[in-house]
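ARCHIVE CARD
SHELF: 3
SLOT: left
DATA:
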Amino acid sequence: MFYSVCIFSAVVFGFSAAEELPRLPFPTVCKRNSTNYSNCLKLAIEEAWPKLIKGLPEFDFPPLDPMTYEFGSAVFDINAIHGEANVSNFVFEGMAKTRFVAVKVNFVDDNFQAVVDLQVPKLAGAGEYEAVGTLAGFRINGKGYFNLTAEDISGPQIITGYVANDRLIIEHVIVAPSIKNLKVYFDLFNSNKEINDLILTFVNEYWPFLYRAVLPTATKVWEPWLCDLANRFFSKVSFTKLFA
């Protein structure tokens, strides 16, 4: 559910100089050499956000609320978690209420870095899963439906890349948010409700430990997807026109 947190962050920096893009009615234009550049970018994001939420089909940019993640697969071999998990048709919502705390952008030669610090009150999503392995000694081999709700999501999102042939190419999108509360439901064992409820209780009680354990692997899984979506936009526009 955190995948979209950085997709819009990477794209919106182009919108902040959108006077060369008449199809994007965002009035704020940010000049790189201005003294209040970071604050201008923050205001530009806040102005652009309602339109980004709806999606921009002309840039092949999807809606962000609700948003669908079609498929992801990860292998875990850390602490109490061992095995493989696949997630598909995951639809989540809540990004419309995002609050932007701070924005910072750096240019060094042809290298680009943006850091967006934000807060999201609540994200809720549901999808399908398939899991094989062990969780805290419990043997898991099942598939079915799951949903989850996360509250008070916050943290910096780091976007880095470089300029080539007057195009900004995003190489990395690092998203590792902190979460205050998390609630999960799944039906790993349709034929054994007692076992399913036992594992579910364990996950919802010890989710902070489990979240910290899976986060490094999860970030590697979703990063290529985030970069691809950001690059769909930047491949269509001139870097020098966007960042005058």
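SLOT: right
DATA:
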Amino acid sequence: MEESEFEDILDDWFIESLKTYKDLHVYQLEHPTQVLEWTSGKTVCVAGFTPSRNEILELRLPLKLLADENKGLCAERDFKVAHGGFSDAPVRRLRHVPGRRCVVTNDGRSSDLQVWDLGGEDSDVIRRTGSIEGRRSQSESGSRIAAPLSSQPQVLHGAQSGDVRLSELTSGRTLYTLESDSADPLSSLQFVSDSVFLASCCNGSVYVADTRSSAAPQLLPAPSSPAASDNWWTDASAGRSGCRMVRVSSSGQAVISDLRRPGEAVSQAQLGDQSRLSDVSDVTVSWAPALDDCVAVSGFSGLVQIFDTSPWRSELQDARPLFEHRGHMVSSEAEDAVSVSVTSHVWHPERPRTLLSAGSDGSVHVWDWVDQSGR
């Protein structure tokens, strides 16, 4: 793309963004990140995944974003590094332990975990304080990680359905083991209550288990799909109306289920042609925590797409996004901006339309989008 053409596209998008964003702030990391994890409503943890030494940073959001009133009087628009440290290994996954200044990471090459202290008011250093051994010494994609919703010093981890266990952070002692005869690779682990969790497999099947019970977990089969070789990514939302689960396939099919009626699809949709899938490890699907019926999907391209699932029905239908964040592709300084993909995104835990997203060019955006649908 010619430089003049790129500048025209950037100018057009900038003018458009004045109407479509309430706030938009950009930060540039030295290396790209695949992990975005809130450590509070004002701070987020990021880390590099290069083969060599990587930074682990806790970033403070721009004060201008956090100002509810008189934003024009707040001059501070930049991210700030609150705490930082270094990892000698890649950081492919990172999970904050609620209520504690602690995160747990995995390098994507083994099933072992690393435990980190995020520092406090008396120290700005993030330092490694321990490790937890995985059940298998080798793993093609590393361990998935989840933490209980309450501030218990525990972590759930595993690379395959037969590996999952709950470990104590301080001692590494095993507190619970998922009983499964299969060895299906996992796409995610997620607690939906203090003790109930989902172990979601790449083939679309999901185990529902309770750490308080010795009973065998409930196995939910994969959704029917025209492509048997599809990979699936899962997220769940536990609200007043029950626990809903959304599964998205590598061919762009989205299926929503209710855990009270797991055998049937509540609704489903085709999210468009996702032939530009860049890396199966980069796909992220997530329910909005403070906005009913909205799901964000990224990793198929340089876009973060937000869908309103309320019109979806049990019959498969095409779905158009409610909003698309194109900022990583448009604002990229890479020679081939089209090749820029979104490596991760996360909703703000309290602000309904605020998201954080990261791109393969090292960009990190925090944005508050405007719903122009009249929804």
